[in-house]
Amino acid sequence: MKRYITAAATLFVTALSFAQGYTNPIIPGFNPDPSVCRAGDDYYLVTSSFHYFPGVPLYHSKDLVNWEQIGHVLDRESQLALPDARSWGGIYAPTIRHHNGRFYMITTNTSSKGNFIVTAEDPRSGWSDPIWVDMPGIDPDLFWDEDGKCYYSGSGNDGIIFCEINPDTGEKLTEPKMIWYGTGGRYPEAPHIYKKDGWYYLLIAEGGTEFGHGVTIARSRNVGGPYIGAPHNPILTHFKQATQGNQIQGTGHADIIQAHDGSWWLVCLGFRTQGGNHHLMGRETFLAPVRWDKGAWPVVNGSGDIALQMDVPTLPQKPFPKRPARNEFESAAVPAHPSATMAAAGLGPEWSWIRNPETDRYEVRDGALMLTGTAADLNETSASPTFVGFRQQDIDFTAETCVSLQKGRSGDKAGITVFMDSGSHYDIYLTRKGGKNSIAVRYAMGVLNHIEETPVGSGKVWLRITGEPEFYRLWYSTDGKDFKQLGLNHTRYLSSETVAGFTGIMIGLWAQSEARTTARFEYFEYR
Ligand code: 6LW
């Protein structure tokens, strides 16, 4: 009898500790190249932002599972100039570290002077201007040894490049040298160095950021190498038979962290396929437990792969309240710690602009978002069109707004879009021609630009885009109740596999006007 009671109690305890679990991705929507650091029991995570502004989304967590965006690291033009950034130029992979009470973030502006560091005492209240680092390549990392010396590593010339650095001035203190070429996968990149049990570990990504991506690791007794790869590399990849049919693919570009309870975790990028082998939401941030015994190599989630549903014990979970699905554009909707520039426009930190915006074209007034159109269209490859976007986070969704044109002139446009890049987006918008209003649907697919228009009366219109695995549908209504489907197109023409690139779909509100016409958006809803 006692045996049964013990067995039942064990089952109960196991069920309790497993009950926590979590769902991957932990940060959905385009959030690639995650890097994470800990300050006490607070965790901060950053991801790549490319040609979007502000740059480097900054997330905060108490448990590594639940994250809230508290702003951006780069929220002013003196930190992030993107005037001519092409689609998916700009900011590549960041690394965030906390050392001696100071936060350091190092990244690359591929459309400007390359690698740079910014620092902050408090990550919520403003980061310094850039300290430029004269090193070639991308994916920079900072590692502090126990003696206080700081080392830079990055990807350059088909291998991992390394030198000692002064992180406060950006000065190189030793001659750069190559320390590892990986295990033979293409694009060895994304290095992070850690020290554990007298070993220096060098974690990198290989295989390219598509289906063949993976994470490998090497170690050395000396920080400068020689580094010897782990026998069971890659320690994480979905490029194998065991993950055939797994919706998550392309796992790689990772960072490892020890939590405040001593447990080890890995954050990485991956993508969720839909409608066959396509992905639309870019590369998202995933979490996996790591077993890292003394003197041993780290093992990621037992088998080196990850699932959408992770039935593993976690830190005690402390979720954040969900952001309301509907943004009424009241100033009260602005979260507590928005990035400064977005807050000026009355928008929360989840909103982004394309390149450096003309901020006077964005205003929240009388419970509405007022967007003043620029001549630049969404197809523009260098200027900043009037656009604010929000990452698509779910394969199935509904996004909706209500818009009117204030004193519209011929050619004015205002609407909603699913936007992959300047050559790849589907839009539904209100437009004006010869004093009359129409609703238009546009499919921009490379050199193809197909537009269909249908006349409507004057006044406001409701616009809606719905997403599902195979299709986007574009809808409008003249009374906010009865929606008519005006457009339908395959998701796959906007996918990363079709379009290429490093970003994911942004759901955007936008306006275009040669005459500075203002469009009034009454709400934005994402379900
Ligand atoms: C990033 C590189 C990569 O710098 O893609 O997946 C590049 N890895 O490491 C852009 O995200």
What does this structure look like?
The N terminus is likely disordered. It contains 3 helices and 39 strands. The protein is globular and about 75 Å long. 5% of the residues lie in helices and 46% in strands. It has 527 residues and is mostly beta strands. Strands 4-26-29-38-31-32-33-34 form an 8-stranded antiparallel beta sheet, with no helix packed on it. Strands 25, 27, 28, 30, 35, 36, 37 and 39 form an 8-stranded antiparallel beta sheet that branches. The chain folds into 2 domains: 293 residues, Glycosyl hydrolase domain, family 43 (Tachylectin-2, Chain A, 5 Propeller); 201 residues, Jelly Rolls, CATH 2.60.120. It binds (Z)-L-Arabinonhydroximo-1,4-lactone. (Z)-L-Arabinonhydroximo-1,4-lactone binds next to strand 7, strand 11, strand 15 and strand 20.
Number of helices: 3
Number of strands: 39
- Overall CATH architecture of the largest domain: 5 Propeller
Pairing-aware structural class of the strands and helices?
mainly beta
> Total domains, how many?
2
Q: Could you tell me the strand content as a percent range?
A: over 45%
Mean pLDDT: 93
The H-level CATH homologous superfamily of the largest domain, spelled out, is Glycosyl hydrolase domain, family 43
Rounded to the nearest angstrom, the radius of gyration is 24 Å
Q: Hetero groups bound?
A: (Z)-L-Arabinonhydroximo-1,4-lactone
Low-pLDDT sequence parts = 1-19
Largest sheet: 8 strands, antiparallel
Q: What is the spatial order of strands in the main beta sheet?
A: 4-26-29-38-31-32-33-34
